Amino acid sequence: MTVLSDKLTSLLGRKTATALGEALDIHTVGDLLRHYPRRYAERGELTDIAGLEIGEHATVLARIEKVNKRRMRNKPGWILEMTITDGHRRLECAFFGNAHQRERELRLGKTGLFAGKVTAFRNKLQLANPEYQMLDSSDDSTMDDFLGAIIPVYPAAQGVPSWSIARCVRQVLDTLEREPDPMPQELLRRNGFIDLFDALHNIHRPKDHAARETAERRLKWDEAMAIQLIFAQRRFSTVSRPAPACPPKQGGILESFDRRLPFDLTSGQRVVGEHIATDLSGEHPMNRLLQGEVGSGKTVVALRAMLQVVDAGRQAAMLAPTEVLAAQHARSLREMLGELGQAGELGAAEDATRVTLLTGSLSAKERKQALLDAASGAAGIVVGTHALIQDTVSFADLGFVVVDEQHRFGVEQRDALRTRGADGTSPHVLVMTATPIPRTVAMTVYGDLETSALRVMPVGRSPISTTVVPVAEKPAWLDRVWQRVREEAEKGHQAYVVCPRIGDEPPSDKSDKRPPLAVLDVAAELEAGPLEGLGVGVLHGRLAADEKDAVMRAFAAGKLDVLVATTVIEVGVNVPNATAMVIMDADRFGVSQLHQLRGRVGRGDVPGLCLLVTEAIDGTSTRERLAAVESTTDGFELSRLDLELRREGDILGAAQSGKRSSLKLLSLLRDEDTIAEARSRAQEIVADDPSLAAHPGLARLVSSVVDDDRVEYLEKS
Ligand code: ADP
Ligand code: MG
């Protein structure tokens, strides 16, 4: 009999086991049985071809629509060309070699499973030399691997197609032993879950959809529990640490700041501000996530919190993902503070503090001074990149860390902060994000954080309309894009053109992909051609600071019509007269980044226009993401669509610094109830048994579902 921890080698033979191990990192019976079908094909129904990713290994159930055998042009031998379809979209296939035998197997009108790497050729999607398994072949032996009409389709790889995996799974299931269930019986009964043994059988070889669904419910529960147990343990260990308490002070710098604020706080800013003020006063560390779109007023909230900490005689640090953004933050904090931020300078207010920028691009002398300010406590607020907390910067008394853009700031980085306070205390942490996060993601990926949101913009915005410009299918639309930019300029408005790259980098040596469009090239081409006669400026992160300032000032003053830039304009640029934004190679940016970028237009009274130029091919997941950006300007709705389109595993994967994902079945989109239920059960269990010593089954579950390194890491911290 077989148990989950058995190696596959003895069961499947060395050749097969090695192939599974190398291609899919599957080594044990447990690994194989937790390699669930990606989806199920129904005998007689075709797979929707939309949403394929270029470069991915895909398996589709499709019908042969065209077959054509011809002689190769330059070599002896035959080539077999074939088109397969799901009834709407098509995939081109080409076979080299064995053309005569294949011609006998691949008959017009027949259906089968086809598997291979997705590529693009002349703007069409291709599977080159796919592996296949015809379903209506007369040879029926392979079909015994599928029970009934439901055919599992597995995440597969070259040389290990879905149907071979199905065969291995079957072999393993036939000898699988019923082991004690890791989930406490009480929990299973309470929620009506079936046991693990039955669930594993039914997820792989369901006799009908009802059986598959019951299995899925149980296995999803395992995933939700494993993750929530980890977060419950993390929350437990965080809140049991000491933090520097920073109660508000009467007559301090925060009160002076509030008196000088040129506007009233929005109700959202007030409510969130009060939560934060209470958290900061506490003796255990705050761990809070603040969501709010660009311009929703997060910086003001963060600054007020930092001032409360300064009032308590401690320091605050603000971390940005890049040096450019850090410099911008420092500038805008100083501006908002005015004379309250000029401690040590002439004309400073009485209880003033100092905002110190500490980045790698400072001169040696400046850097020395900044390090000194941080270490002596002269700087109440230190602004820098994540390097601030990674290396040797020492603080006199760090009480609070604000992290801007959590996307690039994972659990590990937050952990690096844990002992950075005076006497080994844990500073309070506020993570800010401009991308709204659906509740389930917050519970799953940032499950150790409390969350707050600013949902109302302080000042009105004009609507922005977004259009995808698919130059692969419609090359003429590009001319129309530049014409639109000219029209805006003629009306006295301005435009941004954003490119993914600067263009002064050395060429990368080996890549079959065209390098992304570059600011310097695009600006030169536009000036010489489509935008001839307009004032075109260039802005990117490697310009000298004074050049950057000069360009920005010229654009803000309306002396330039068009600004060709990298994403440096993502934050901090505010020119209400700019009405149009053209994003070149838009597919090279993420959904939330595109959303943030277009937030630069529509800031005045005139509606904004955003054009997403792309060569991505229709039917790819890339194009679906762009279509999502086109379809809505509501950040929360967009975050939901983005979630739907991304491989959900990626989300957790990213939060776990790229390690193997632990979400296989659990959907952050659809399983909100399961996740919430698991969160409360996990909270109860960990409150009684923080180390899970009395729940060995659950402890094992955590390690079987979540990557081993990760668990070890959690135990260490
Ligand atoms: P975020 O950091 O969320 O992108 P900011 O805090 O930078 O947003 O605020 C965007 C702009 O709105 C800034 O110019 C800021 O001064 C202004 N602002 C913030 N809060 C308010 C408010 N309550 N009323 C009016 N303007 C505000
Ligand atoms: Mg901001």
Features of the shown structure:
seven-stranded parallel beta sheet; 717 residues; binds magnesium ion; alpha/beta; binds adenosine-5'-diphosphate
Strand order of the largest sheet: 11-12-10-13-14-9-15
| Number of helices, counting only DSSP H or I runs of 4 residues or more | 26
Biggest sheet descriptor = 7 strands, parallel
Instruction: Please tally the β strands and state the result.
Output: 21
Given helix and strand content, the structural type is alpha/beta
As an assembly, this protein is: single chain
Q: Which of globular, elongated, flat, extended, rod-shaped describes the shape?
A: globular
Q: What low-confidence regions span 5 or more consecutive residues with pLDDT below 50?
A: 648-660, 708-717
Instruction: Kindly estimate the percentage of residues that lie in beta strands according to DSSP.
Output: 15-25%
CATH architecture annotation name of the domain at 464-632 = 3-Layer(aba) Sandwich
Protein name: ATP-dependent DNA helicase RecG
Catalytic activity: Couples ATP hydrolysis with the unwinding of duplex DNA by translocating in the 3'-5' direction; ATP + H2O = ADP + phosphate + H(+)
Enzyme class: isomerase
EC number: 5.6.2.4
